[in-house]
Specification:
By secondary structure, this protein is an alpha+beta fold. It is built from 26 helices and 18 strands.
């Protein structure tokens, strides 16, 4: 079967730069899926994406589908004839459905008996017939949040479409998609080659655009060019370019023929917080900033032009004129804000609503300050610093800088706290209160920052749960899922030994009134600790391990973490499965007893009769004595490793000893022995949950 090269290119007005890479990859995936569903083979697929085009080149594509044999089963042979031996109506109808006589049907043995069958050969369709539908479906399935119409057309797409190329080798695929007739004409760069380009063959696409059209159509190659040009240009001026991946992708989606140019701004702007300058350059102008070897911002930027200009200085000066007023605004806001302290601005927060039922942002800072002071001893912070930081933590929200640059929230607060002469802990807490912002983000480091970060999240969680607005699978407007994960990460990874139930109870007492006050602590605790399930899943720890610890209904996240990790390691031991089964068996035995057993009572050695139970009682007593100090120090892994040595003795006990003997005293003594065995493991976790069958 001959192999072909297939090219599809959709030309458009400038596509959304933040979506281009996603759209092009989805376009490719849709076409590949369609080709594979059609049972067409191919050797390679390449996707191209530039501001005004998305294209896919499929190499080595089958010219047609393979022919296939299709067998259709009909009625059972016993029902295929009437009393006279003639074909029944059902059998004749089955034959007519294929346009054949009854005599042309065959018989096939099946698990339901012998049945009539018709076998037919179906010729495969050509690729040219199949590809229009495949491309149409791929375009329809693109992840476009909002489609648009243009002119009088009823066609909808992310941007107005301008041209369509569909070639199989050197032949045009005759079809219409999105009201465009497919052809072989593409278009070059708007400036360097503002004309149509005729493609003679699908395989010529990339080189034709590159050489004649001055368009680098390969997104990855274009991105690499931009990155390398930016690095080299910064190095030429004794700097280091800071290249954010998201910004790099966005800039790549904005240009077809990239040329890096270096611009400059006035050094006086370096007195402004560099985060504000960087925000102005990257978010608004899509510039890359440059730092020195110490990471300090330099008064330069790199812009990527979409043209190879004969007079690049004009482009540079134009960009410098554009960025100057933005930086001047940032400098003005910074100078204006420094005339007022964070304490002064805090009063303005009385007029800013946090949540209608939970009061103003000022009210929230009062609660956060109270909580941060409570947390200070647990995290090693000064109580006065933690309380002060809690009071001031939201003051920068009403500053001119943050109102203009919302991503300066917290960052601006740190600069203003330093300007106001606040302590280092208070200043660091202004910024660190928002950490971690996302999964894998850095955690607060300064103790005061840790206290405020925890206090802020706990207050929000208790307040929102307390008014009955628990998040659902679809709605989480206050980002409580992220807040709870942040709380757990801070506590566990910062090794803060604190009881979350007690912390939530203290937080709840800080509210004047909560409609769900009676249940809020239990609700928030359950919701938060349940988030640990996904944490351990990400770490490759089984749900059974987590459930074994969860069964103890603990409320100290750090302690839970230590137990889970210990049980996880224990579960890898050869003895784990047997001991888990034994614990489950013990639980079942004890559950059937009419009265509870006092596990603190002593074993009556005089009632020990069998060698196996004598051995278990002796070895268990030794293990309890040796592991008691380990348990007190939370050295759970060492305790479980020691208890794992009981496996042989425990197995021998169940093989040789009848627990539920007729002798009441002996039976009670044996049940007490088993209860102590179970309690030894249960001091760490209920390992019976490790039994998966």
């Amino acid at each position: 079967m001959s192999a072909l090269d297939f090219l599809v290119e959709l030309g458009t007005e400038e596509l959304p730069p933040k979506s281009l890479l996603t759209l092009s990859e989805a376009f490719k995936s849709g076409i590949v899926a369609g080709i594979e569903d059609a049972q067409l083979s191919y050797s390679d697929v390449t996707v191209y994406a530039a501001p005004r085009r998305m294209a896919v080149l499929v190499k080595g594509l089958d010219a047609k589908q393979p022919d296939r044999i299709e067998e259709k089963l009909g009625p059972n042979v016993t029902a295929a004839f009437d009393a006279e031996g003639n074909p029944s109506k059902a059998a004749q109808g089955f034959a007519r459905s294929f346009g054949v006589d009854f005599d042309q049907l065959s018989r096939v043995d099946t698990d339901k008996g012998e049945r009539l069958a018709y076998t037919q050969s179906i010729a495969g369709k050509s690729s040219a017939e199949l590809l229009p539908a495949i491309v149409t479906k791929s375009l329809a399935d693109l992840p476009i949040a909002k489609r648009m119409r243009w002119g009088a057309k009823r066609t909808e797409f992310v941007r107005p479409v301008k041209w369509l190329v569909m070639l199989l080798n050197n032949d045009v695929v005759d079809c219409e998609i999105l009201e465009l007739q497919a052809g072989r004409t593409t278009r070059g760069h708007r400036v360097h080659c503002n004309q149509d380009l005729v493609l003679n063959n699908a395989a010529d696409y990339y080189e034709t655009l590159l050489q004649a059209g001055k368009v680098e159509a390969d997104f990855v190659k274009r991105r690499d060019i931009i990155k390398q040009q930016t690095i080299d240009l910064a190095k030429q001026h004794n700097g280091v370019a800071v290249i954010d991946d998201d910004l790099l992708n966005e800039v790549t989606a904005l240009v077809e023929w990239p040329v890096a140019l270096l611009g400059r701004f006035e050094e006086r702007f370096l007195d402004v917080p560099q985060e504000a300058l960087i925000s102005s350059m990257s978010e608004h102008q899509k510039y890359f900033h440059i730092v020195d070897e110490n990471g300090a911002l330099l008064p330069n930027f790199i812009t990527i032009a979409n043209i190879e200009s004969k007079d690049p200085q004009q482009i540079i000066e134009g960009n410098e004129r554009v960025i100057r007023p933005r930086l001047a605004d940032a400098a003005f806001f910074f100078d204006t804000d420094k005339k007022f302290t964070l304490a002064d601005r805090r009063e303005t927060l009385r007029k800013v609503t946090f949540q209608q039922q939970l009061g103003s942002v000022w009210d929230k800072t009062e609660r956060v300050a109270r909580l941060a002071a409570y947390l200070a001893p647990f995290v090693g912070a000064e109580v006065s610093d933690a309380q002060r930081a809690g009071q001031l933590c939201k003051s920068d929200l009403v500053s001119e800088m943050v109102l203009e640059f919302d991503n300066m929230q917290g960052i601006a607060g740190r600069y203003y706290a330093i300007n106001d002469g606040e302590s280092q802990g208070v200043a660091e807490a202004m910024q660190e209160q928002y950490l971690p912002k996302f999964a894998g983000d850095a955690l607060p480091v300064h103790p005061t920052g840790v206290a405020v970060a925890l206090a802020d999240r706990i207050d929000t969680m208790v307040g929102i749960f307390g008014i009955g607005q628990k998040p659902t699978g679809a709605k989480d407007p206050f980002a409580l899922r992220r807040a709870s994960l942040g709380v757990l990460r801070i506590i566990i990874e910062s090794k803060i030994d604190i009881d979350l139930r007690e912390l939530l109870t203290f937080a709840a007492e800080g509210f004047d009134s909560l409609p769900k006050a009676d249940s809020v602590v239990d609700s928030v605790l359950e919701y938060t600790l349940e988030r640990l399930r996904s944490r351990y899943q990400d770490l490759g720890i089984s749900a059974e391990v987590f459930m074994s610890v969860q069964a103890k209904q603990l409320s100290r996240p750090l302690d839970i973490e230590q137990r889970v990790l210990a049980v996880h390691e224990f579960s890898k031991l050869n003895a784990a499965s047997s001991l888990a089964s034994a614990n489950k068996r013990v639980s079942n035995i004890l559950a059937k007893l009419e009265s509870a057993i006092d596990e603190t009572a002593d074993i009556n050695e005089a009632l020990l009769q069998d060698d196996a139970e004598i051995a278990l009682a002796k070895q268990l007593a030794e293990k309890l004595a040796s592991t008691s100090p380990l348990l007190s120090d939370n050295r759970y892994g060492e305790v479980l490793n020691s208890l794992a040595e009981l496996q042989t003795t425990v197995d021998a006990f169940f093989d040789n000893v009848m627990v539920m003997t007729d002798d009441d005293a002996v039976r009670a003594n044996r049940c007490l022995l088993l209860a102590k065995l179970r309690a030894a493991f249960l001091a760490i976790a209920d390992i019976s949950h490790l039994v998966t069958k």
